[in-house]
Queue: 2 jobs
Job 1
Amino acid sequence: MLTVTDLSVHYGPVHAVKGVDLAVRAGSVTALLGANGAGKTTTLMAIAGARKVSGGTIEFDGRSIVGTPPEDIIRAGLAVVPEGRRVFASLSVLENLVVAGSLAGDAAVSRARRDEMMTRFPILAERRHQKAGLLSGGEQQMLAVARGLMSAPRLLLLDEPSLGLAPQMVDRVFDLIESLKAEGLAILLVEQNVPLSLEIADEAVVLANGRVSISGDAASLADSDLVRSAYLAA
Amino acid sequence: MDVVIQQFVNALSLGGIYALLALGLAIVFSIVRLINFAHGEIMTVGGYGVFVCLLFGLPIPFAIIVGILASVATAMLMERVAFRAMRGASVVSLLITSFAISEILKVLFQNGISARPKPIQLPASLSGSYELAGLTIGVIPTISILTTLAALTGLTLFLRRTETGMAMRAAAEDFEMLRLLGVRANRVVAAAFALSGLLAGIAAVVWTAQRGSVDPLMGFYPVLKAFIATVLGGLGSLSGAVLGGFLVGIFEVFSQAFLPASLSPYRDAIVLSAVIAVLLVRPDGLIPAAKVDRS
């Protein structure tokens, strides 16, 4: 469904992503792992059209999306839940969802999706009129996911959803990812929590200094010595 | 005491115009980080729209609508022709672009229409005044205050209740994120310019009614004051722009009315010194904009 080949991204003089290959198959989860600054977020934002691609190809459903504005990529069926959640802090929970639902172009569809999100995340229904900036980190993460789902995507790009959350909340986030996967949503998961990510993912790609250092199916990666010594502290 | 109250009415009517202009500047700045120096010319076009309609003997309500629509169209055209190509450019490049547009339009008005003020004939009923609780209050200041209030209420409702309004508030906070939700950036930016043009058009109508004439610089000076108002209130903050607008209006009217004649040449200097004093204490303005800057 998503195929990234030889992707390069420059930040000014810095070559942040150097020839990355990765793929997400329909209905599966690909984990994108690596240390801070390895190029994970840059790769994800480049796929979403929010960073300028300097080389390589990105294909979504077999069509190249390099150079396409982010709003058109999203409309093609891809959703982004960015690092740091980036909820609109001064808008209420409900307003965050209304804004995200506007791409449906149909008030009834948008309302139905909103109701769906409120049922799925009861805490959001409870806080619907509260400003998003006043929610806890975990609640903001739920809102960020719900906001991404408002476009009824087929592929979800999730960037560090467990970052800065309490252990209990981390479990809930991974439960959520699991249930989204069970519903058939394809997911590209950028994470620093390697053990949990490998458990949930079908495939994994490990980045180091902007390059792929190792990739393959998640189960065999979890058994590999390199990953075990570097991330799993085995 | 009566004099103070009457001057207060004048201050509110002038401050209201500054508030409308400052709001237009703030709405555009909050979304595209553009300080639009050509905002004054958007207002001037509105004034000429009214002038041309009345010249042809068209009814006043029609002239008002044409004036306002002319401002909206000018603002949207500016965005489409000049600023869209510059999207994402540095603040300085955007500022210089807006200077250029402003100069081009001013020259067009001077050479195409007239460098001198053109009088506008208004019905006598508008220039009158009425008594309220023993005070003499002008009809036009009253209309301008009511118009400003209606515009501010309408704007608040628009930003709070409509999808586009919410998207504009979201864009002011995190424009890239809004695009990452699939919301069309160009539409939100066009809406912001249309809104700023609408507010400038309303200001133009009220200003023209107060002055009874239009000239190529009619928008330039009030917008200069509106710039001061946005900085005083907090650049990019909408409530700050309104507060700043009214404060500048109050400063201006009261210094005009109550400063001794020997000090009046220094009026602007005194007002601006007061602004500097406020900024020394509150560098981000009175009501700073809540904005997460992302690079």
Note: Chain B touches chain A at residues 163, 166-167, 169-170, 173-174, 176-185, 290, 292 (CB under 8 Å).
Job 2
Amino acid sequence: MTEYSKMAKGSFTSTGATQIVNLPFAPDRVRITNYTAYTNFAVHGIPWGYWSSAMGQGFAAVGYVNTGPVLATGIVTSSGISTFQAGLSLQYGPTKQIVGITAANPAVVTVTAHGYSIGDTVIMQGLYQTASTGMPQIAGIPFTITAVTANTFTINWNASGSNYTALSGSPAGALVKKVLYPFLYLPEDNVVWSITTGTTTTVGTTMYHNFEIGQEIAFRIPNAWGTTQLNSLPNPITPGSPIYGYVTSITDNWTFVCSINSSAFTAFNVNQPVANVPGQTFPQVLSVGDVNSGGNVITATSPLYPSPLFPTSTNRVPTINGPAIRGAFVNNTSQGFIIGTGNAVYIGTPDTSSNLVGANADVIYWEAFLDDITMP
Amino acid sequence: MSITTTGNLGPLILQSLAPAMLYVPTPTMNYITVCDKVSMPANGGTTCRFMRPRALTPPTIQLGNSGIDPPAQIPQRDIIDAQMAFFGTGCILNEQVILQDQEGVLAWVSERLAVAMRQAEDLILRDYIVSAASEINAGGGSNGDNPTNLGVSDFSLVATTLDTNNAYKFMSGIEGMDRFGTGPVRSAYFMLTSTELQSDFDGLTGLGFLNQWNYPTNASALPSEYGSVYNIRILTSSEAPVARGASLKGNDVYYNTVLGKQAITHINQDGYSMNLIYRDPYYSGMLAQNATLAVKFAQAQAITQDTAIRNLLSTRLNNLGV
């Protein structure tokens, strides 16, 4: 071991889904041990895995229990172990052809073998079925995927209105790509796809909203979308004073309830005509801070500690910062490695029942290294 | 012939180092320039808290003659919190490098670290604004995309929005002078945008765009200032945020941040804006072989007046050079 090498170790209980491990460095080799798979020796198990940067991102060499069951060796060739350095925004994955989109609520996008997961954020372009039909209304909006199958994913958008035409037949120019690091600074500006008016207002966002209860929020609703009374300015009662609401409850990662009484407000209109698309601004909600009585009190036992978790309701991941006041603007940049859900490939054949990150409730130990010296 | 030439008696040493280093292309750093600056005290916790009072409702209804006071108002305030984060990078230099290299390694590595740190400050602010500020899609251009390229009506629209929100402008105007080819410059907000749009701005000459060199005097112009349109003065940088291929038609989308005073604040802690740290080889290993040279800084940022900032998103009309 040389003087400036970096080492880290840890453990987690697997959920069966991709696991992100935040570190102060991006390792060049990683070892994982599935203690549960060692304990319960069974077919499809992957008791250990090893990754080196020389293998390439997303690979791993693994121990694998074949149908014998006998402990054998295998490799993971996709969704293995990879590193990440989330420090700069506006980076995208490769573009993929969209086969079709349903004109439904919610809209379902078909992309052959897209490889996306729930929680991935994507952005689409094109989306014309003909020159005057299709769904260009949702091009350019970032969507955090709500459900997936192998060839489809679901997004939060009501495309059942008369102005939407389903996409089919892989129209030219209809493309989708993944937004690689959509939540570097939190909470973020977000596109609104639904507003339910009432004594309180229920708001649906296209991306994870990442709000906490007590977060003070502002709306930017362009005229065409209807509910412009939510806009923070101009204020007809108190000139110059922005109208803000605050989050009173969180329904899920994409939905929250805010304090504004919108009973008398104009209904939200998501049924936008194709002809309006060039130059159209999307309805947005954004965080503006905290409010007198809406935020959390800071005490040693309050939910302020440890650091905030994002997204806000499920699969929460802690930031690498220390304790923060909820509702604060938080830097969420990070680096480390990812353990994927890849299958072990044994004698050239993938075992689709195996999972590198283990099954739900498996206990995984990991060690990560960044070496001073690498020799060929 | 017995002439001695460099062919038969060449120089012993074939190279010499040019007296000055070549310059390192460095983008202009506009985001840090237009931020308000605040310093948290030492031992001041993790989070900088801003307080902004809310306006009270003006009493526009007469009291009448009943002698009864109107109900009291409850003063309210908005609280904005920004959490401090720490950043740093460095180099490990073997003493043989310092001893044997001719070009003053410690000096130029120090300079590069310092510039990298300043760029980090700017990039952090840039990405934060991209993430957190609300957006207006340009619609005044002619390219039929969403957003469109910038038209002069987009400048007017965003300045109108900020004026309606009672934002403060950064710059007072520049009065017209009797100089051929110049024109007065209005009091202005700043737009932070990409150098890649400069040809689009040039295309608006005569339609509202005034190049900086056509100001009556450019004494108050910033080094990165390209010109102005109506109430907006334009600062360009090659590092301005661009979402490549993210428009309706798959074109690049530019985040043209238009802002007034106090829209965004940059916070450090106890002057912890930069530490250049040199550790002599004495502090490494038993043979004291390696020196380290590093920079470290702490920074937080917050949009402190959300009503005074907009990202005016646009595409581009003209092709890029290569």
Note: Chain A touches chain B through 63 residues (CB under 8 Å).
